[in-house]
Specification:
- By secondary structure, the protein is α+β, with helices and mostly antiparallel strands.
- The protein has one domain: Oxidoreductase, molybdopterin-binding domain (Sulfite Oxidase, Chain A, domain 2, Alpha-Beta Complex).
- It contains eight helices and 13 strands.
- Strands 1, 4, 5, 8, 9, 10, 12 and 13 form an eight-stranded mixed sheet that branches. It has a five-stranded mixed sheet with strand order 3-2-11-6-7.
- The N terminus is likely disordered.
- The structure holds ligand MTE.
Length: about 325
């Protein structure tokens, strides 16, 4: 099995029909399916919520399931900087200013570079990829993300031979992120939110540097202006609102590992055979569905990523 395959969905089955009609008009308008335009917003200004973002669909890596309702994907979120309840991010996310914004790509690289976010959005062809986001809390969503392989940026800065891991850091700003205020219960996390990948995981073509979803710029509550999506790992590996990507020689200490190492390992590969200490990971509930479904090894991407872990005891390295 390459990836999950069910029936192809029709545009009319997707909640935000207008969005997809817009895309069809765009495609009809001059063979523009491969046009790789970024959002049509002046540099320096934050694009308004819901601003369209054009991207060519990459069917080869996309699941063929009906996407979760846009409303669910933007109102049922984990973004502890805004609070620990699922509806906190949608309510509080207007506080986040996504321009000006820079992302420093640095550390063990020959050509460190700080990208202005608009420069980054234009630097590589944008693709739409429909991935399943499987949260460690045993729910999942099907989301048409927009972005490009993280590997494209990493190759541009030329990692040195000492670089073995990649560390992602979220913005630290308690004014914009109420959850980072001293005394506020942020789920026991230390700020800023830090996540990490092994270099080969970061370079894997499925790993997406993500700037949009559902044909729009990324909503703040989903990690604007830029986040990671690693489709074979639990959702918490997908750090949001990133300001720094650092190439390092040692395995980074991640926010969740620091908070509860017995519950959240560095690898966090989706694995139905390794239970969370407090609940099973064998099944999941797709948001919007009633019945639970079996969780797939590596979230359905075993054919593409299992070889990264040959020889590694995945029960020990959860
Ligand atoms: N990134 C930051 N900075 N802060 C967070 O609290 N939560 C993670 C991840 N990235 C989180 C984060 C978790 S637990 C999940 S499941 C996903 O974001 C949720 O992404 P979504 O809200 O877009 O579905």
């Amino acid at each position: 099995m390459l990836i999950r395959r069910t029936e192809r969905f029709k545009a009319s089955e997707i909640t935000d029909e207008k969005l997809y009609l817009n895309r069809r008009e765009f495609i009809a308008g001059g063979g523009a399916a491969l046009a790789l335009a970024a959002c049509d917003v002046a540099d320096g200004a934050a694009p308004p919520a819901g601003a369209p973002l054009k991207a060519a669909r990459n069917d080869g890596v996309s699941v063929k399931e009906v996407p979760t309702k846009l409303e669910s994907a933007t109102t049922y979120n984990n973004f502890y900087e805004f609070g620990v309840n699922k509806d906190d991010p949608a309510r509080e996310a207007h506080r986040l200013k996504t321009r000006p914004w820079t992302v420093a790509v640095e550390g063990l690289v020959h050509k460190p570079k700080t990208y202005d976010i608009d420069e980054l959005i234009r630097a590589f062809p944008l693709e739409e990829r429909v991935y399943v986001l499987r949260c460690v809390e045993a729910w999942s969503m099907v989301i048409p993300w927009i972005g490009f392989p993280l590997g494209a940026v990493l190759k541009q800065v030329e990692p040195t031979s000492q670089a073995k891991f990649v560390e992602f850091t979220t913005l630290l700003d308690p004014v914009q992120f109420p959850g980072q205020k001293p005394g506020f219960f942020g789920g026991g996390l230390e700020w800023p939110y830090v996540e990490g990948l092994r270099l080969d995981e970061a370079l894997h073509p499925l790993t997406l540097l993500t700037v949009g979803m559902y044909g729009q710029v990324l909503p703040n509550q989903n990690g604007a202006p830029v986040r990671i999506v690693v489709p074979w790992k639990y959702g918490f590996k997908s750090a949001k609102s990133i300001v720094r990507i650092r190439l390092v020689s040692e395995q980074p200490k991640t926010a969740w590992e620091k908070a509860a190492p017995q519950e959240y390992g560095f690898y966090s590969n989706v694995n139905p055979t390794v239970s969370h200490p407090r609940w099973s990971q064998a099944t999941e509930r797709r948001i919007g569905e009633f019945r639970r479904r079996p969780t797939l090894m590596f979230n359905g991407y075993a054919d593409q990523v299992a070889s990264l872990y040959s020889g590694l005891d995945l029960k020990k390295h959860y």
